[in-house]
Amino acid sequence: MDSHITIFDTTLRDGEQSPGYSMNKQEKLRLALQLERLGVDVIEAGFPIASDGDYETVKEIGKIVKDCSVAALCRTRQEDLDRAVSALQHAVKPRVHTFIATSDIHLKYKLQMSRSEVLDSAVEAVRFARTHCDDVEFSAEDASRSDPEFLIEIFTAVIDAGATTINVPDTVGYALPWEYGELIRTLKQRIPNIDQAVISVHCHNDLGLAVANSLMAIQNGARQVECTVNGIGERAGNASLEEVVMTLETRKNSMNFTTSVNTTEIFPSSQLLAQITGKNVQPNKAIVGDNAFAHEAGIHQHGVLKNPLTYEIMTPESVGLTCNKIVIGKHSGRFALCKKLEELGYHLSKEHLDQAYRRVTRLADEKKEVNDHDLIRIMATEKFSADQKPRQMAAGG
Ligand code: KIV
Ligand code: ZN
């Protein structure tokens, strides 16, 4: 069975939908280029019918992103589909992502539609999208609270109509890992034409289970995971990209899957998002929190200094941090700064190095030591950082 997991990043769409995380067009373009550098397979760039700004942003992202698929979200309504197709006109690898709810609770109270009306609407939307685009994803919103028999029926029909990915969202973060795994297994076993589509999962974190549910889904046949940088998203957020990817990396001995993500771009991506939105990552956040690789307790420090394997299950370098061999303080010179930035993957011109040096010495005046986090933060706020960071080989294969 295929062991590659497609990473579908929805930071710019679901992530941006959460309160306090809205971004302007320039900020989204910057983040899209960073996501491309990170090596995600699909960037969901926005929801073009939502606003003119979203439409323009998806269009621009389609122009500048070359290596990833660019997805636009739309309901199954004709005006939504038209807007999504139009917004994707310049994308090298466009994907139309259309969705409609399938749970009885949504049908009754939100859509006021019958199951057969929902099914017809989904099939029509997918059929139309396929006349414009070879890559069409269909999402059954609130799938985890939908009747599995109806899911089998609607997914079979949309695959017949041309859907290339079928997404099974746990929209309200209600599922338990074993239930969700079982649902994915059932769909894989019972949808007769499932060999013509990829099964995708999209988990929300209301009970803190989004990553666990995504992993269970992979174990049971899902091959696309929808996730966001720093786990941002509606309410308690979406599955965190860095946690899914680093679990697959770190536990290859148990789950033998690969992604195209260049893991050394994880920390810079996290920092860029935090800087753009002005929302810091919680210090104890797995993988990207300030304390994720910090050791305070004496016993731990002793062990880590003797051999990092004692208390570290992955290296800081693997997510884009360096070990602090060179400590930058106010007495450090340009040479040390240049070396340190090179370790972090930034190769600056003399002019940009001078600019960075001035920022760093100002900060060093305020705090004793300028650490990797500070430097990456500074680089993220300087316009030149995006141009200067070279591409690196994907760690995930
Ligand atoms: O949570 C959800 O169901 C969604 C869909 C639009 C995929 O975000
Ligand atoms: Zn969602």
Secondary structure elements and pairings:
Elements: E1 6-9, H1 11-15, H2 25-38, E2 42-46, H3 52-64, E3 69-75, H4 78-87, E4 94-101, H5 104-111, H6 115-132, E5 136-141, H7 148-160, E6 165-170, H8 177-190, E7 198-203, H9 210-219, E8 224-227, H10 241-250, H11 266-277, H12 298-306, H13 334-343, H14 350-366, H15 372-381, H16 385-388
Parallel strand pairs: 1-2, 1-8, 2-3, 3-4, 4-5, 5-6, 6-7, 7-8
The structure holds 3-methyl-2-oxobutanoic acid (KIV) and zinc ion (ZN).
What does this entry look like structurally?
The protein is of the alpha/beta class and 397 residues long. The chain has two domains: 6-277, Aldolase class I (TIM Barrel); 294-388, no CATH class. 45% of the residues lie in helices and 12% in strands. The chain is built from 16 helices and eight strands. The chain has helices spanning 11-15, 25-38, 52-64, 78-87, 104-111, 115-132, 148-160, 177-190, 210-219, 241-250, 266-277, 298-306, 334-343, 350-366, 372-381, 385-388; strands at 6-9, 42-46, 69-75, 94-101, 136-141, 165-170, 198-203, 224-227. An eight-stranded parallel barrel has the order 1-2-3-4-5-6-7-8, surrounded by eight helices. Helix 3 links the parallel strand 2 (42-46) and strand 3 (69-75). Helix 2 packs antiparallel against helix 11 and helix 6 runs parallel beside helix 7 (148-160). It starts with 5 loop residues before the first strand and ends in a 9-residue tail after the last helix. Mean pLDDT is 92; it is low at 390-397. The chain binds 3-methyl-2-oxobutanoic acid and zinc ion (ZN). The site of 3-methyl-2-oxobutanoic acid has 9 residues, from strand 5 and strand 6.
